[in-house]
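Objective 1b. Sequence-to-structure analysis of ABC-2 type transport system ATP-binding protein.
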Amino acid sequence: MVSIDVWNASVEFPIFDAKTRSLKKAVLGKAGGKISNDTKVPVIEALQDINISLRHGDRVGLVGHNGAGKSTLLRLLSGIYEPTRGNSRVVGKVAPVFDLGVGMDPEISGYENIIIRGLFLGMTRAQMEKRVDDIADFTELGNYLNMPLRTYSTGMRVRLALGVVTSIDPEILLLDEGIGAVDAAFLERARDRLNDLVRRSGLLVFASHSDEFLMELCNSAIWMDQGRVRMQGGLREVLTAYKGHDPFENMPQHVLERLSAVGGTA
Ligand SMILES: Nc1ncnc2c1ncn2[C@@H]1O[C@H](COP(=O)(O)OP(=O)(O)OP(=O)(O)O)[C@@H](O)[C@H]1O
């Protein structure tokens, strides 16, 4: 059974080349984690005393302003960062989807990149070979799949990457906002695949600034504020506290209908 447990974990970044203050007036910072100047070298306290316990079936949205610590938390959960203090334990095969382009090689073909990217996300070569035709259909890239990736436009790369990502079977899926930044029309086509992907995964943690996306994919949320967990609970309740108003209030009717159809929290 998959699980994520984090006990009193902190992640800090010492900054060795920080410049001394040159602004005429001290600017009150709202975005970003706390910067501690107690030591000789300034330290960015990206995560402070995080306690989280997630289990199979949890679909958690991470919300919070810029620099609140969402991406750092995802990196901690994926094992990219070790906690500077405290502990974390993740049981299950993790697929980190932070940057759609990571793990792609510009010199090899689209087909080859499909396999390589799948391996990077924890699939086997045999599994990817079974799925390659389906992914190829979805991308609509035709003969371009035989060409090196460097000949692709940005949008073509995104199609390929999204095709692969939505074909995998992760136990724990860690998604960062970036995926919401792709071309809207294509995302519309990818929506069903993305929903299926989330349904197949045992546990989802998704950092996003998009209410609509969060409501579609998540059933609970964690509000990060200056590196700390400010609130944890049902998605609607947390979003309402974070935004200061109920995000469903102004949601157009067609969106509400779609959200209830996909089993979102509407
Ligand atoms: N590699 C790094 N080196 C130094 N500081 C970092 C590093 N990565 C993140 N930080 C700092 O950690 C804090 C949290 O950043 P993080 O990227 O986790 O925020 P976020 O909530 O994902 O923000 P956004 O919504 O803008 O993506 C910020 O203060 C940021 O400056």
